[in-house]
Structures are given as C-alpha cells and as structure tokens.
Amino acid sequence: MKRALFAWGGWEGHEPRQTTEKASAALADAGFEVVVKDTLDAFKDVDEVKSYDLIVPLASSTSSPCRNCERRGSICGRAAQVRT
C-alpha cells in the first residue's frame, strides 16, 4: 500500500486543516495509507519522511527555519536530503 504524509500549519484563515482533510480523504479513498500531522516538525525525522511515497506539506503564512536552502536545518534542506 502506498503511504502519504500530510503536514499542515499556518494561518487558520487560509484553512490548512480543512484543505488537508479534503485532500487526505481523497487519497485515502484512492487506497493510500494516510498520516496527517498538524505540525511542520513532521519533517524533522528524515528517515521517517523517506518512508513515504508521497509527501504533502500544506502550510501558509509560515517561514522555514532559515532562508538558505542549502542548510540541512531548514525544511527545504531536509527535503533535499530526502531526494538523495
């Protein structure tokens, strides 16, 4: 079974929770095992992130820990680690 990770956060006015609920339900209906986390800290464990077939970050009005994508401490830095 394919696995999908949804991690959401940000300003509630942009409805990240509601968007996550709709999108994750659609994937569950399509046969995915879906894991939903209400924090971007879901990306801290690189090995766990690598175990998913699909990763869906849903965040608005937030910032990554740094602006330099090359730093491994940033969200985008961890994503780069996962790709390798």
How would you describe this structure to a colleague?
A 3-stranded parallel sheet has the order 2-1-3, covered by helices on one side. The longest helix is centred in the N-terminal third of the chain and has 14 residues, at 16-29. Residues 64-73 have low confidence and may be disordered. The protein is α/β, with parallel strands linked by helices. It is 33% helix and 24% strand. The protein has helices at residues 16-29, 46-50, 75-83; strands at 3-10, 33-37, 54-60. It has 3 helices and 3 strands; from the N terminus they run βαβαβα. It has one domain.
Please count the beta strands (DSSP E, at least 2 residues each).
3
- N- and C-termini, Cα separation: 23 Å
Provide the gyration radius in Å.
13 Å
Mean pLDDT: 80
Q: Can you give the helix content as a percent range?
A: 25-40%
Q: How much strand? A: 15-25%
Q: In which order are the strands of the major sheet placed?
A: 2-1-3
Low-confidence stretches: 64-73
Helix and strand sequence: EHEHEH
How many helices does DSSP assign? 3
Secondary structure category: alpha/beta
How can the largest sheet be summarized? 3 strands, parallel
Integer tally of domains: 1
Mass-distribution shape:
flat
Features:
alpha/beta, 33% helix
In short:
This protein is 33% helix and 24% strand. It is of the alpha/beta class and 84 residues long.
Topology readout:
Blueprint: E1 3-10, H1 16-29, E2 33-37, H2 46-50, E3 54-60, H3 75-83
Parallel strand pairs: 1-2, 1-3
